[in-house]
Design a protein that fits this description.
The chain has no helices and 5 strands. The protein is mostly beta strands. It has one domain.
Length: 89
């Protein structure tokens, strides 16, 4: 499983955003060897289309993780986990 990741929902509900490797160009990752290497420079909560025009074509999938669920993220995919709530989504 080199390069892949597993994410587990603990005792809370989580929402995950998944992006395929084809979205890589549009997410504007930090340069290699930067402290945030492999992270997106785009603020996904407030995307500025003028600053990041390539992000407009990025499409992803979301899923809701219930307590005890496990999410497999394949190598080269991007994932963002968002805490939905402790009581439910």
């Amino acid at each position: 499983m080199d390069g892949a990741a597993l994410g587990a929902g603990a005792a809370v509900h989580n929402k995950a955003l998944l992006l395929t490797p084809q979205a890589f160009q549009g997410i504007y990752t930090y340069p290699v060897h930067h402290p945030y290497d492999r992270y997106s420079m785009v603020d996904l909560d407030r995307v500025d289309g003028d600053e990041w025009p390539g992000f407009a074509g990025v499409r992803g999938s979301t899923c809701i993780l219930q307590p005890g669920d496990l999410l497999f993220v394949p190598q080269f995919w991007c994932a963002r986990s968002i805490l939905a709530s402790a009581a439910g989504c």
